[in-house]
Amino acid sequence: xxxxxxxxxxxxxxxxxxxxxxxxxxxxxxxxxxxxxxxxxxxxxxxxxxxxxxxxxxxxxxxxxxxxxxxxxxxxxxxxxxxxxxxxxxxxxxxxxxxxxxxxxxxxxxxxxxxxxxxxxxxxxxxxxxxxxxxxxxxxxxxxxxxxxxxxxxxxxxxxxxxxxxxxxxxxxxxxxxxxxxxxxxxxxxxxxxxxxxxxxxxxxxxxxxxxxxxxxxxxxxxxxxxxxxxxxxxxxxxxxxxxxxxxxxxxxxxxxxxx
Length: 260
Description:
2 domains; Outer Surface Protein A, domain 3; 11 helices; elongated
């Protein structure tokens, strides 16, 4: 390795991990010594990454407050140095980090807010899938339904929430006073998806959550009906299944059909 490449690596190691080998090659300046001059770059690197996290998680920032957000951001940067050429993906591990790190895991609302906001980011960035319409379903022959499967829209994301983070996010985006964080004793599944340039989200009842999970697991309409029998009388299930399917099509959650 050339001397220049070694110096570059040492500079990176100081910025990322605080390793001091590079200081022997840095001269003191008139206002800052060698370490002070290097800290300008190290602090600037962290501040830029904090800006990236703030852009991806504005509601988390609002919920946590400036001091805690700065603290968790710096802890995340230390635990997950950026390995992505595109800063868009730098915050991908933040929900799991907040859920598992001992300094933050007790405040479960933080991880849930991060999970919700990351789901919205993924939904917005997804590819533009086609959207199924009801006319395509109406044209299907009756014998096709037993093996009929559905392709979920690429934007569809699912998160499990116990805190009222969607209400907090919505109030923040509307520049309204957010509600006090509150936790439900029973969690609920929420879905997030995009239609054109608009993000939508809503909670799911337990039966709908199970049915949609079946579809997401590439099972067919008959499998979906079988799952719904855990909550409904068998004679009611076909109508309930069709009602759910119509809602999903109307909302743009289904992008295509397949036979399984």
